[in-house]
Predict the 3D structure of the following.
Amino acid sequence: MSERRIRVIVAKPGLDGHDRGAKVVARALRDAGMEVIYTGLRQTAESIVETAIQEDADAIGISILSGAHEHYFSEIIKLLKEKSAEDIVVFGGGVIPEGDIPGLKEMGAGAIFGPGTSTSTCIEWLEEKVREKRSKES
Amino acid sequence: MKYSSVNFASDPVDSEDGSLPGKGRFRVSEKEVCRDLREGRKGYDERVARGLARQPEMKEVFTTGGGIPLERLYTPMDIEGLDYCRDLGFPGSYPYTRGVQPTMYRGRFWTMRQYAGFATAAESNARYRYLLEQGQTGLSVAFDLPTQIGYDSDHPMARGEVGKVGVAIDSLADMETLFREIPLGKVSTSMTINAPAAVLLAMYIAVGEKQGVPASELSGTIQNDILKEYIARGTYIFPPKPSMRLITDIFGFCSDNVPKWNTISISGYHIREAGSTASQEVAFTLADGVAYVQAAVKAGLDPNVFGQRLSFFFNAHNDFLEEVAKFRAARRLWARLMKERMGVSEPKALMLRFHTQTAGSTLTAQQPENNIVRVAIQALASVMGGTQSLHTNSFDEALALPTEKSVGIALKTQQIIAYESGATSTVDPLAGSYVIESLTSEIERQALEYIDKIEEMGGMLVAIEKGYPQQEIQDAAYQYQKAVESDERVVVGVNRFQVDEDGGGRELLRVDPSVGENQEKALKAMKQGRDNVLVGNRLDEVRAAARDENLNLMPAMIDAVKVYATEGEICGVLREEFDEYRENIVL
């Protein structure tokens, strides 16, 4: 198979410094054969979207534990639409109350993986989503 | 258990060997009486080996959470090298293994200090007064992220974050509201603030002054530990060099003016939350401590004086035995480092006094009520380890900020340990346990090995630049995750004993989304009402002090906050003068 490896941006938007989850997920995705670009802390929605477009990423994974998830998900998804890049899969995790998840999905988030999710669940989901995305493109 | 080493015959017999007085003596077969430790151990091992053939143990190797192998059984043979007077000593005496006070909790319980703060200063003030009414004995302020990173609430980077993980403080006006009707001369206040610690301390001093409490009477703690921000927590602003200057300026200023203030809380908590092992937590925390002491000595301060105001902050995890040992090891190792390597002689500057918080990372979003039990085990470990103050996490914190009800349960957990468990009635009750002493020595050994390695690299600042502690922590975090996913480690409710649950109806704390907007409006109004020319002058003085390393920055900051210069304005000046730190990404 000559299929391009899945390329994913793992991003920490805003001021939240909790990066254990983001780094563990980044490493697990990399070990699963994906190309991972980890942004580091304190990213703006603009910088994340710009990186994703420049790197021709398949997906953006957002980690937020500070409670700013609604703000950042909506900003990132809005910017992707503005730049006609809404085919990029957006998913995330962190401390996100269950009650907020439907709202985030409505905005366009593909999945929210809460605390305790195994990395394999996340990997399988992402592989499936990217497969769907690519089949639509071809 | 399957193989009991001693069979108690059920019929009491009279005997003259004096083994048990009066009734209740038991017949034990001759070969099972332990007359010699080594012989007895050999016999036990043989009996176990025979038993294992029939019924193996659940695992081939048992380890602590941090990977230290645990023997099946510990006996005096495992602590043969231990010298009571050299290695344990007495409570309140060097090397403080058994505690920093002679009577520990018989004299006074630890300070029950719940970390709290959210939304606006007015709402947080109400929560503090509730906690004080509930019997809490000290305050612990959580600031929101913009405050922790030196941005006012109207800064573009603050959007979506105002009032979320703590209270928003822009100026002295907010600080006055935060402590309204709370007498600063009577409570001690801990503030989790690091990069802009000097600004918030300046505000606290100014509020005290308005309440009629002189700085010399204020007691409390600022976290002020920038090194662990670079390593694990992420709320840095400035590069290491000016950050270390801010810290030593605070040490110097407080030695002279705020003598009851703990000028730093050298924190392993976040290092552990980021995934380190227990030994790494001790190692990197004490290595940070060594770096601060070296920096302050270089700035001309006397470690016998400022050393008395250093405090520490550790995590408490579920692995009970390892955690108890960890606290004891940290205390002994710090005393030895300060005495032997820093030449400190003042006893109070040798003592490692610490705050503990139970481990947020062990809380599960699944079956969250189970977290109450986890927190209780962790809290008990910290008490058995001799903590000076304690925050117990609330059971719903893997889901959101805690509600008033869940915070109440967390606080009551401490009160039950203090008043009902009986475990506080004697000092350092687990001392002398073969396994506890053995683990204490092993953690001390492992931590010292790391500390020496870091010294060889050129000290903690160099090690951080190379990404060394970051890499060690991340490797441990990844190992942990893999162990959970392979079911090697069991987390109840997550990878074993799961139940179907519907969390939709849970009562969670929600921060009013209008907080940011309201805070911005209040800030704008405050700025219109102050003397802006005066503010400009005071900010110029802060800039001048920043440029002159021979000056202490604290007096200029206190003058600036008093005229309502904002935190963001002061940090803005310092950003221009000191530049900003750029993360060294380690993956």
